């Protein structure tokens, strides 16, 4: 009894955390999208999202 409780309790916690992560990922993907557009990927995330250049010298 004790061994099974010690074994399954962390596994249940991991399963709940994994399911919650998939739910949050699915909501984010459905509402605002996960990836940048092809043009934004080409320009770079720093310039596309933060409007800053990656290298301060340029």
UniProtKB/TrEMBL annotation:
It is found in: Membrane. One of its GO terms (cellular component) is membrane. Signal peptide: none annotated. Coiled coil: none annotated. The chain crosses the membrane at residues 6-28. Keywords: Membrane, Transmembrane, Transmembrane helix. It comes from the Bacteria. Gene3D superfamilies: Ammonium transporter AmtB like domains. It is a multi-pass membrane protein. This is Ammonium transporter AmtB-like domain-containing protein. It comes from Candidatus Thiothrix putei.
